[in-house]
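Thread: Newbie trying to understand structure tokens

Hi all, I'm a second-year student working on a class project, and my supervisor (Dr. K.) asked me to get a predicted structure for one chain before our next meeting. I've only ever worked with sequences, so writing a 3D structure as a token string is new to me. If someone could post the tokens and maybe explain what I'm looking at, I'd be very grateful. Here's the chain:
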Amino acid sequence: MKNKKTYKVTAKQENSKMCFVCGLTNNLGLKASFYETDKQELIAVFTPGQAHQGYPGRLHGGIAAAILDEAIGRNINMNRDDQLWGVTVDFNIRFKKPIPLDKPLKTVTRLTKENRRFFEGSGEIVLDDGTIAATARGKYYKMPIKDIASDFTMDSDDWKVVKTGQDPARIDVP
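---
Reply by user tm_fold:
Sure, no problem. This is what the structure looks like when written as tokens:
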């Protein structure tokens, strides 16, 4: 195993009701949790199941792209106004290793560039042994949530931080 990196969790980000990536009541979704860290990186923790497979026993590449896109795009919300979100303009992913199902996985993402209208970020899916299974880069347009989804409300979409007894104070990434 490679040298592990330990992150101190500084905040947990919101989940929603039906989002494919973070929706807690979407029975086919990933139900990912997103944690802000002391290293100004965002870590998503999720366990893909059989419904998320491409080839038998392997995560579908489109779902790997979805978790990375969501995690990179959420970096704009770290320590900021939660009404400003990112809309994907450009996204590129590179697959390096098969990604297993039914095992907890982590993405580690960060903001790499920002100006008044856009931001860019990068990230990777890291396996238990420290192997980087996929890397991605994305560019996002900054938009207020009211302009993205006019019918979105924090209450009706259950957009809130949901604390659990399993939320870590620290996250180790091999």
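A couple of things are worth pointing out once you decode it. The chain has a mean pLDDT of 93. Strands lie at 5-12, 33-37, 41-46, 84-95, 105-114, 118-126, 132-144, 170-173. Feel free to ask follow-ups in this thread.
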